[in-house]
Amino acid sequence: MSRPCPCASKKTYDRCCGPFHAGAALPETAELLMRSRYAAYAIGKVDYLIATRPEAKRAEENRDELLQYCRSVSFVGLKIAAKEKGGKGDDTGIVTFHASIQANGRRSLHIETSTFVRENGKWVYVDGVIKE
Predict the structure, then answer these.
(1) Distance from C-alpha of 94 to C-alpha of 6, rounded to nearest angstrom
(2) pTM (2 d.p.)
(3) How far is the C-alpha of 29 from the C-alpha of 130, rounded, in Å?
(4) Which of 13, 26, 78, 120 has its CA 20 to 30 A from that of 7?
(5) Element (DSSP H or E) covering residue 106
(6) Up-side HSE of residue 103: CA atoms within 13 Å toward CB?
(7) Is the pLDDT of residue 1 over 90?
(8) Mind listing the domains of the chain with CATH numbers?
(9) Average of pLDDT values for 39-62?
(10) Cα-atom radius of gyration of the chain, to the nearest Å?
């Protein structure tokens, strides 16, 4: 796929989040994992969303609900607002992002501060605090 990556990196999908979704590469930073998860929501890669949660939390994820959510929402844009740690040499990271989404004909802004950790050498999404 040579279309633009949904994560707003200005790269093509096959040179950005595509290799992560295909299991051919791992995100090296918390921000890259966050971007790849956003892209996964945008194109319905729910298995990737589940796989990038902590191992102990994966069983709590509902694949059908995730898929329904992905299909019901249009992911319009992404902006990284702040980062704390989460680099190649870190074991924890925090990323604050603004995601423009559209559902039921209404556009809204989802603002979240997400926490990431390394688990078995891979970045995983722990949780997020949503600004309302």
Answers:
(1) 21
(2) 0.95
(3) 21
(4) 120
(5) strand 106-119
(6) 13
(7) no
(8) 13-131 (3.10.450.50)
(9) 96
(10) 14
